[in-house]
Structures are given as C-alpha cells and as structure tokens.
Fold Probable G-protein coupled receptor Mth-like 8.
Amino acid sequence: MSLRMAQLCPLGMKILLLLCTVHLCWGYHEETHYPCAFIDTANISGSYISEGSYIHNWTVIPRHLVAAYDFVIENGIRIPAPIHLRACVCKSRPCVRICCPEGQTYDLVTRQCEIPIRQLSSLPSENHMEVELNNGSLSDIELRSRFSIHVGTPCEHMKAVTKGSEYVHWTLHENGTVTHRGHLFSKHYCFTPLLLLNGNTSWDWQPLACAPEKLHFVLGVREWTYAICLLIAIISMFIVLMVYLMCSEMRNSFYGVAIKAYTICMIMGYAPLAYLTLHNPANLSNAACRILPSLTLMYLVLSFYILSFIAFKLYLSFHGVVFTKLMFWLIFTPIVLIAIGWSFFVGFSYYGSRLIFGGDTCWFDPRNWSIMVYLYAPVFVACAISGFFYILSLIYISEEPEIETEKSFESIEKNRFRSFWKYFGYTALVWFVCVCSFAFNYYREERSHLNYAVSFCMAFHGFAALYALIGKNQQIQNFLRRIDNEEDTCENSVPLSSFG
C-alpha cells in the first residue's frame, strides 16, 4: 500500500502543478496583452481588487483594461522593467496631465519644475481649469471631479507651441482631448502655467509637447571639411605604408611591421568614419549602423595599443632584448583580441536607455558621455602606458654614457625612438583637441566652430605621420636617397625570424 501511494504521489504532484499553472494562466490571460497605449496607463501594482475589478484612486477599472507589463517607456524609448500591472485609467476616466506639483511651473530654459519668483503674481490653481463641455459651452470646473490627474512630464525635454511671438490657445475638452481649431494635441503632453509673451505678468495654462530627441542629420560645410581632412590623413597613412613596404630594412623589422600594422588600422578606422560622416543614418540598415562604427572603434583603439606596444619594444631594445616571431605574436595577438572584444561589447551595449550604436546616429551620440567612456578612456589608458615607457626610456638614455661613434652618427634605435615620439606627441595633441571639442560642444548643447579645428587636426595628423615616420627616420631617408641614385634595393635587411 505504501509503495502504491509512493507511486501515486509524483503523479498527484504533477496534476496539482498543472492545475495551478492553468489557474495562473487564466488569471493573467487578460493581462498578457496591451489594451491601450502606454501613455494612457498607470501602475496599479498593489491596488485593491473587488469583484474582479481593480480600484485605483477611487476609480473602478475592469480586468480587461489591465495588463502585465515587462517594460516602461521613457522619452519614447522602451526600457525593460520588472513585471508589473498597469491599467488603462484614461479609458475609464478622461486624463489630464500636469507637468509639476502645485506651486511650481515648468521652466522652458532649465527644463525642470521651479517655484516662480515672488515678484510675479500667484500661480493659477491646479484644481480648476476652463473646460469645453460636450454641449460646446465653456465652464471653469474642478478637474478632480471629472478627470484623472497625472502629475509629471512624459519626456525630459518639453516645449511650448507658439505661433509667431504668442502662445497658441489650446482648449481642454470634457473627454480629455486638447485641440486648437480642429488640430488635436499629442497625448504626450502636460499642462503648466506660463507667463504670457505680451510682457504682462499674467499666467496662462499651456500644454507642453515633448521636444524631439532625435538628432537630425546635417550634411554641411563642417561635415564635408571633416571628411576631406580624414581623406588627407588616409592618403598620408597610405604613403607611409607603401614606403615601409618598399624598404626591406623596415619591411622585416619589428618596428617596420608594427608601423605598417598601425597605418593599416588608421586607414581602416578613418575610412568608415568619413563614410558615416557623409551618410544619413536613416539610409543605412540597422546592421550597417552597428557594424561600421564597431569596426571603426576597433581599429582606432587597436592603433593606440600598437603605439603602446612600440613604446614597450623601444624601451626593451635599449636593454638588448630581441623579440622573436613567437614573442611578437604572443604579445600582439591578445592585444588584437581585446580590441575585437571591446568593439563587440560596445556594439551591443546600452548607454543609459539607448543603444550606443544604431540609434539617431551611427557613431557615438554627442548628447551624452558615451564617447568618453568607450573611446577616449581606452585611448587615454594606452597613452598612459606609452608615456610610462617613454619616461623609463628617457631615464635609461640619460644614465647611459655617450659613445664616440654615436656623436657623429645617431644610433638606429635612438633615431627610431626620437622619430616615433615626435609622431606620438603630434597624435596625442590631435586627440586632445578632439576631446576638448567634444566637451565644449556637449556643454553648449550645440555644434561650434571648434569642429573645424578637429577637421584640420585630422589633416595635420596625416602630415605629422609623413614628417615624423618618414622625414625624421634615418633608415627611410637613406632608402629614399638610394632611390634617387637609382639604387632600388636596401642592404643589410633584418630577417623576419628575429625582430630587432
């Protein structure tokens, strides 16, 4: 008997679980769809339930107007949230939205609720407002007797609707709609008292609309200048790449391989950046709007860590350390993998409530600090690493006794060291201007003429590569002189089996 009961217990438990599941599914069946727009709902979690209906703020809400939500909408963006119940309160009772608590008004400049200065007349009461009834007559009625009052702004940035230099006179209807000469106001609004624009101190109730958050694409002189300067930098980097490929002394040395990898990264980073500057994000697919900036980020970040790698190797070269191919790839491969992983992570991450890539712009949004976190911060870390090895190298050089042979002809390593750090200094200056331009535009909340400085710095970056990596490198200069003398080959090439 006990054995039979033991066999039946698991079956009984399964049936019990099935019944509970069916009951739960039936109880929340009407709550798994969305019976109205999100703006017309209110969170009723914890509300009293009576005879199958919910009671919220003394308003009875039928079950078919209730749904379970796993998101909220802020500034027009759907954001995941814990599952909670929301009810279509505006279907049970007309809604009126007030921007600020009583005694405050929404300041259109600071974009927040503030208490008006005392010299002005007192604010109108939020309890009464002129309403057009269904019979067409206007009456000053108590709002709470006929409407469900919601306090708060539906968006962060609100704006008033003006016609010329005056506010438009909108009419609140008994059914909750707001109109002006047949034009229906958006549901995403809120009322606030505003001083009339005719210079007097009287207040008027005005509905504020959500200011557009979308970053509009602009293709003007600034954008074309920036793209052309990027093209100049790309051409300059390509010249450096070709020269280092042609010179066998650089072709197979560690320094030459690293510089070639760096120039390729800069070309592959600047090219899509110029493309994105000239193309409207609305005309690009979602995939392209996330892949292109991710690749740009990867190449730009990787380029700076290649510079850090070169700085590390230049420091070791003064101590006589020789890199083999295995050592080179054991260090370089993780750097590449980290850059790829970082760009992949950023491409699928959110900053605040927005995707970093794939929103209003196919690059970092200039209205937030995402570019500082995901681009400039890794670049700063790479510059700090390079600077650390630069200081160590300077200390070693200052303590090293001078050799007579080096007085007449600078050693190869010291020449590479000086030409490389000339270029690194120019690069750091260019990116410092970029950071300053972003910070200045961010606090101004608009583009400035400092963008032209960034554009010219991009072109300067290319010229700096030609000047420092070619003009100040003795091996490259000797190679170019031999070309002038119709000697097309470079002697004493360093084999690839050992990076010097």
In short: The domain at 221-499 is CATH 1.20.1070.10 (Rhopdopsin 7-helix transmembrane proteins). The chain has three domains: 30-93, 95-210, 221-499.
